[in-house]
Write a structure and sequence with these properties.
Length: 549
């Protein structure tokens, strides 16, 4: 099992030191939920009259709870703010429509081989950096190779591991990804080790935005001027002064003239600036969520791509019985856990594939929900003598995790399952949770790219390196492989739904919750919607009072 690390974001629910968790186990620090909403209070001094049609012009002011993030390598995938800014600054080969369908971005088109294990992307002739230099296939190769070179220490890098030559690049035996080439300035060729029909969706993730590599390497240098950056997105830097990066729209596609990214010391300071009317957008600190919703509404709360599960290690002697595993799944009340521990930042998640993705819910598992009576029936049938094995509940000893684990122990014991909490420090838990000795264990997951594949194939394929439950099923493997090689979107969705159902039926994972992206936006801000990764289609955003400015 590889080690895979990420940092707790600066917009985390509670301010903690940066934490790193092992392979497929991400920081479970609560993530700030984010919403946008319009005030219904006619006396609100920020209220504006909203025209019936979008208005062109004006500057949108975004308040960030930390420094302006420029380099994709510095992004925390657990931070909606990081991902939103990355997506604003850097375009990828593709972008996703509202329904998750890949659309051309820097690539004008792409074509897979019949087996979908080889792809060619054609760079748009109009694709340029903000300094006017054309974006070439060489730039694409350099950008993606730079991400891949971060190796097993990076979630983003690991999602590129199907590109041929990934392992050789990571272990240092090769200087380049052999499967990533530029046959000519307008063509990027990607050779994979196995079929992947959703490669364009993967490459639409903000972490795979195309950058001027030399410029990115210089960002961290003392005295670096962010106003001189060459960016691949639809915005160009106009100035950077006193912690404010002003971006001007480059083309005609959109309504806003410009966007200001303003640095603040922390999330609390950015939110205070919003309340003072100094910025139009800010993340909500956890202890302000209730009042923020009351004052500004929650109409546009958006699901985020970070989730929490309890895994059941099928190789643990105590969990070899499927009846016991199913009883455990039926005994765990996820709604009670979320209400008690994560009510301000998350929603209960009854399935593996999170909300906000095409394929969410699918077939689910009708018999996998909270049902203590069913749990007791299963136990009576499987253990008629009442001699049940003791189940260890494994978790890191942070406050939220401890409270959640204690609830799980109570819920298991309530149906007759002997359960013992087994906390470890975060540092120890990082290693333990991938040791094979874990039993019923908490872990977080971020898919990186907006596809059910990122939550199913990466965790539950029998040969998946991030399979931390030990689950293996030829039926599930066949379904996941069919989805990755299918040309038809409907066929992929059907295969994913069947695979998810089979995994839930096997009771090797109990989905618990999904975090939210939750921000407040001024009433003047219209058309703002956050995707599952926190990104925004800025072409749709406009300011109701722009005509008056």
């Amino acid at each position: 099992m590889r080690a895979e690390w990420c940092q707790t974001p600066f917009d985390a629910r509670r301010r903690r030191r940066p934490a790193r968790l092992a392979a497929a186990v991400l920081a479970l620090a609560g993530l700030v939920a984010a919403c946008t909403g319009d005030s219904d209070d006619p006396d609100d001094p920020g209220a504006v009259d909203v025209p019936s049609e979008p208005v062109d012009g004006g500057t949108l002011r975004i308040g960030l709870g930390g420094p302006v993030l420029i380099d994709p390598l510095d992004a925390s995938l657990a931070s909606a703010s990081d991902l939103m800014v990355l997506d604003l600054l850097h375009d990828g080969l593709a972008r996703l429509s509202a329904d998750g369908t890949p659309q051309p971005a820097l690539a004008a088109s792409w074509a897979p081989s019949a087996a979908r294990d080889s792809w060619e992307f054609t760079i748009s002739s109009e694709a340029t950096f903000s300094d006017g230099e054309p974006i070439t296939a060489t730039d694409v190769v350099a950008s993606l190779e730079r991400v891949a070179a971060a190796g097993t220490g990076s979630l983003a890098a690991l999602r590129l591991e199907q590109i041929a030559g990934f392992r050789a690049l990571v272990d240092g035996s090769a200087d380049h990804l052999s499967g990533l080439t530029a046959p000519d300035p307008a063509t990027v060729r990607i050779e994979l080790t196995s079929p992947m029909s959703i490669l364009p969706q993967l490459l639409a993730s903000p972490v795979f935005g195309i950058v001027d590599v030399a410029a990115m390497e210089a960002v961290g240098e003392e005295g670096a001027d962010l106003s001189e950056l060459a960016l691949s997105g639809a915005w160009e830097p106009a100035s950077f002064d006193d912690g404010v990066l002003l971006l001007d729209r480059r083309g005609d596609d959109g309504h806003l003239d410009s966007i200001e990214l303003t640095e603040h010391d922390d999330v609390e300071a950015a939110y205070e600036a919003f309340e003072d009317g100094d910025v139009d957008w800010a993340a909500v600190p956890a202890d302000e969520v209730e009042s923020a919703v009351e004052r500004h509404g929650d109409e546009h709360f958006a699901p985020f791509h970070a989730v929490v599960y309890f895994g059941l290690n099928v190789d643990a002697p105590a969990l070899g019985s499927i009846e016991l595993r199913r009883a455990i799944a039926a005994a765990i009340d996820r709604e009670a856990i979320v209400e008690a521990v994560y009510a301000d930042v998350a929603d209960p998640l009854p399935v593996i594939v999170p909300a906000g993705l095409g394929g969410h819910s699918g077939r689910g598992c009708e018999a996998c929900g909270y049902d203590p009576d069913r749990a007791e029936e299963l136990l009576a049938e499987a253990f008629p003598d009442g001699d049940l094995p003791e189940v260890h509940v494994d978790f890191d000893d942070s406050a939220d995790q401890t409270e959640m684990a204690e609830l799980v122990v109570e819920q298991l014991e309530a149906v007759g399952i002997p359960a013992t909490p087994r906390p470890r420090s975060i540092e120890d838990y990082e290693r333990f949770v991938v040791s094979g000795e874990q039993e019923l264990f908490s872990f977080g997951w971020i898919g990186v790219y907006a596809s059910p594949d990122a939550y199913l194939a990466t965790q539950f394929a029998g040969d998946a390196p991030d399979n931390v439950t030990g689950f293996a099923s030829p039926v599930v493997d066949k379904l996941l492989a069919a989805a990755r090689s299918s040309e038809a979107p409907a066929g992929r969705l059907a295969a994913w739904a069947d695979a998810e159902h089979a995994v839930l039926e096997a009771a090797v994972v109990v989905p618990i919750l999904q975090f939210r992206t939750q921000v407040v936006a001024a009433d003047r801000v219209q058309g703002l919607t956050h995707a599952i990764d926190g990104s925004v289609d800025w072409r749709d955003v406009w300011l109701a009072d722009a005509s008056a400015s």
